[in-house]
Design a protein that fits this description.
By secondary structure, the protein is mostly beta strands. It has 1 helix and 12 strands.
């Protein structure tokens, strides 16, 4: 097994909140192609104090393209799960199946609203400990920072290189 260092890990999501009194938690999945790596008896890494801490996956079920319910070993109560709330999740690069040389980074993807209004193109992704952001530029160079969050990112179509978002009212006028 490789050393657990940032270069050996892929950021796949964030712990949102406890899901049950049994220690399960709801998670946002930023790269839905990697959900296959979340199999029982494999490891997921939770970033605690800037370091990846491995947890053995006991159960995982998807609740949508960008979300799921996760149960890991040694987290057995709602209080235990609440202590992990807001932390980032990673998997080992070796546990991720090859994606036919595709780059799941979303650079160059078109971003549109659910009403089919073109917002722009993804130029970058800012990964912050509390909230990752899509950096989107429109056709005249205006920049929008769109939070990567399950309430905002409605769908991601990797074949069409399209991200559909539901933005708060007035977001584009800021």
């Amino acid at each position: 097994m490789p050393v657990w260092k940032p270069e050996n890990l892929i950021h796949i999501g964030t712990i949102l909140k406890p899901h049950s009194y049994l220690g399960k938690f709801k998670m946002a999945v930023f790269v839905s192609e990697y959900q296959d790596a979340l199999e029982p008896d494999s490891f997921i890494f939770v970033e605690l104090d800037g370091k990846p801490v491995p947890y053995l996956i006991e159960e995982y079920s998807t609740t949508g393209a960008e979300s799921g319910i996760l149960k890991v070993a040694d987290i057995n109560t709602e209080g235990d799960a609440k202590k992990l709330q807001g932390n980032e999740l990673y998997v080992l690069t070796e546990s991720v199946a090859e994606q036919d040389e595709e780059d799941p980074s979303y650079y160059g993807y078109e971003v549109r609203t659910e009403e089919d209004l073109l917002i722009g193109t993804v130029e970058d992704i800012i990964e912050n400990p509390l909230q990752s952001l899509l950096v989107v530029h429109d056709s005249v160079g205006k920049e929008f920072l769109i939070p990567i969050h399950e309430d905002i990112i409605m769908s991601i179509d990797t074949e069409a290189e399209l991200i559909i978002v539901d933005l708060p009212e007035g977001f584009l006028e800021i």
